[in-house]
Amino acid sequence: MTAASSAPARPAVVCADDYGLAPGVSDAIAELIGAGRLSATSCMTTMADWRRAAAPLRELVRRAPADVGLHLTLTDQAPLSRASGLAIDGRLPPLGRLLPRALAHALPAAALIDELRAQLDAFEDAWGAPPDYVDGHQHVHVLPGVREAVVAELLRRYPVGRVWVRDCVEPPVRCLRRGESTAKAMFISALGAGLRRQLHAAGIPANDGFSGLHDFSTVRPFGDKMRRFLAALGPRPLLHVHPGRVDAALLGCDALTTPREAELAYLASDEFADDLATAGVRPARFAEFAGNRASRR
Question: Of 17, 27, 114, 275, which one is the catalytic site residue?
Fold first, then answer.
């Protein structure tokens, strides 16, 4: 046994996005949590499957602990509030419309707060407790206007430190070292810098290290990409993934389909377990990071 392999494995939050999007996605994520392959999942409370899937997830994490958070959704789906000035004909805008408005600081602040509160209410109504953390579908929580709403609402709603937030900032050297969707990673990191400053000023805890961005192409095996992610992690890292099974509900609500099955197959495999061991990493809840102030359930 080498010195590297005999050293204690370091914790990393391995988080599956989109719980509640469709039964095929929710059930696949639950299986991976039960198998110890994931340590967190982000929930879309705007979606019909959230109400069905919340109760079994709550039972699951009692025996297989994992962080469960809100995946703030501001694109493509129906809103839970009126979202006046944000929604178009009863649907949240595509990212291609939301992003330029955010960069121009032209998003309606009242609508953002109303929708964030409605999605947090829907989480708490089904879950019976606050989320462990908040992040954003398509990383919308880092956008100008949205990030201010997130920080203000968390400070209004919860004791400081009760809920942590996903930080998407990555140093350019790690983005370049991975070589996976480098331009996208650097753009999201640049946007995330504003959120990071606000989180630090407010005392809201966050991860330090963000990976998992890729082009969702299945030309290269997902395991090849994962090994690049694992080779360049930050000091308190979060690695996000998108596993799932394609079903009729998913086909009817989201464009990301078959790549989810490739991620699921890899994450459930011995190959992933071996890759984690080789990298000296283990899935862990955020509370395992030294010095954080997040409460355990």
Answer: 17
- 280 contact partners, CB below 8 Å, separation of at least 6: 4, 5, 7, 9, 10
17 is catalytic: yes
CA distance 78 to 81: 9
pLDDT tens for each residue of 234-275: 999 999 999 999 999 999 999 999 999 999 999 999 999 999
Structure tokens at 151: 């920080």
Which H or E element spans position 42?
A: strand 40-43
Q: How far apart are CA 263 and CA 136, in angstroms?
A: 20
Return d(Cα 241, Cα 251) in angstroms, integer. 19
Residue type for position 184: K
16 CB burial (10 A radius; 0-12, 13-18, 19+): buried
Coil, helix or strand for 213?
coil
Global model pTM greater than 0.90: yes
Strands (E) in 1-39, as ranges, are 10-19
Length of the chain: 297
